[in-house]
Design the sequence.
């Protein structure tokens, strides 16, 4: 494998016309490389997460399996695969077995449109450092994420357990709520880049990254990707304190390992998508790219891409070791009453600025007026929420609590007959 040099470096940015021309052996090699990269990232992420959180909690973390405990993730994977597979008797067996596959497969497919680098030379064949690309590649990522929701719902429904069913319902409501806000945060990127192709979005950030131009969209995406991943502080579908373990309560052995694998692959995909849309993708940061002419050529961009992705993975781990779980009503309120209205308003602002810029107006003054108006709206909204909270009457002391079932809510019986045994 060699790097592009000379005149080929001028055409390092791939376009949609560069895809679909690779021979079969190169396409297969790329697919295997992406699969291996995700598996290695999952194993390393598990080790890093346990070590970092251990340090945060004044513990050592895994340090027995391999040097510095590096093989702990591999040992856990082998343990899960070799454990006894316990299947409850009354489950829908076909759906129960297929649900983890439906959760895991879309997580791998979504990474296929992520650009890892520019045009490179592989055994003399010029090819983009990306498995494939589409004119609507970002929509493919959203579509695969939506397919993963079906797996979670089917896991909860097929288990024939009230706890798993509640976890599936929570997972559905949470993903729908935050996926809408996530899609809205992409609209501003599409308006600026003029395309939904991931490789062309990276090419559009050759001057300034969108994290600077579209910071509100970046902030919304960071919050929504935490809700989309279902990790602390938004791990309500797994709520151990109230619904035992959520959708995977009845799963064990390799089926549970597949659910675990899908969670970490999804974490990597969300981090890679954020890097692609807002942090310039595989492009080197400003000091390196300005001082070193070849920073964005050859195989070096793969290093910058991995550094950015691991920065987001560390951010996820840091939040898990720092923040407590939020209440479910707070989760829904943040998604429907804060993120979605804010995203819609921001889209209107971005569209207006782009329209005035296309007409030749001075956008600096327009942005100042818009920022002032947005700040005023936020202040008024905050004051209104505070005043409304003070006007709500406090709960009466000694008031009788009405059981949810008596009030007409469809609460599943906690003493429902549920038998376990070998399939």
Sequence:
């Amino acid at each position: 494998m060699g790097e592009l040099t000379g005149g080929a470096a001028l055409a390092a940015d791939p376009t949609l016309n560069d895809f679909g021309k690779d021979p079969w052996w190169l396409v297969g090699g790329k697919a295997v490389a992406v699969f291996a990269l995700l598996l290695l990232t999952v194993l390393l992420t598990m080790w890093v997460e346990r070590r970092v959180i251990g340090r945060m909690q004044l513990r050592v973390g895994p340090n027995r399996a391999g040097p510095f405990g590096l093989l702990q993730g591999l040992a856990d994977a082998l343990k899960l695969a070799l454990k006894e597979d316990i299947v409850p008797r009354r489950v829908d067996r076909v759906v129960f077995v297929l649900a983890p596959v439906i959760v895991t497969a879309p997580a791998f497919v979504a990474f296929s449109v992520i650009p890892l680098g520019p045009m490179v030379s592989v055994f003399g064949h010029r090819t983009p450092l990306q498995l494939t690309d589409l004119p609507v590649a970002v929509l493919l990522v959203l579509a695969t994420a939506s397919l993963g929701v079906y797996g979670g719902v089917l896991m909860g429904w097929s288990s024939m357990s009230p706890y798993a069913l509640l976890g599936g319902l929570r997972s559905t409501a949470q993903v729908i709520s935050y996926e809408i806000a996530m899609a809205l945060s992409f609209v501003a990127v599409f308006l600026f880049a003029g395309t939904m192709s991931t490789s062309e979005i990276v090419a559009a950030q050759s001057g300034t990254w969108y994290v600077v131009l579209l910071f509100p969209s970046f902030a919304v995406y960071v919050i929504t990707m935490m809700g989309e991943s279902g990790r602390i502080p938004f791990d309500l579908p797994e709520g151990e304190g109230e619904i035992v373990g959520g959708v995977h309560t009845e799963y064990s052995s390799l089926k549970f390992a597949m659910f675990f694998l899908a969670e970490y692959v999804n974490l990597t995909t969300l981090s890679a998508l954020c890097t692609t849309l807002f942090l310039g993708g595989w492009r080197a940061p400003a000091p390196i790219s300005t001082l070193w002419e070849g920073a964005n050529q050859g195989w070096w961009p793969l290093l910058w891409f991995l550094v950015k992705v691991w920065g987001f993975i560390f951010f996820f781990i840091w939040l898990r070791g720092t923040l407590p779980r939020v209440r479910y009503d707070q989760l829904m309120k943040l998604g429907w009453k804060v993120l979605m209205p804010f995203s819609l308003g921001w889209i209107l602002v971005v569209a207006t600025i782009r329209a005035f810029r296309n007409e030749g107006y001075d956008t600096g003054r327009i942005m100042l007026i818009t920022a002032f108006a947005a700040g005023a709206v936020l202040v008024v909204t905050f004051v209104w929420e505070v005043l409304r909270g003070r006007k709500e009457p406090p709960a009466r002391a000694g008031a009788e609590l009405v059981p949810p079932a008596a009030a007409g809510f469809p609460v599943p019986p906690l003493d429902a007959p549920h038998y376990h045994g070998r399939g």
Observations:
- The longest strand covers residues 119-122.
- The chain has a mean pLDDT of 80.
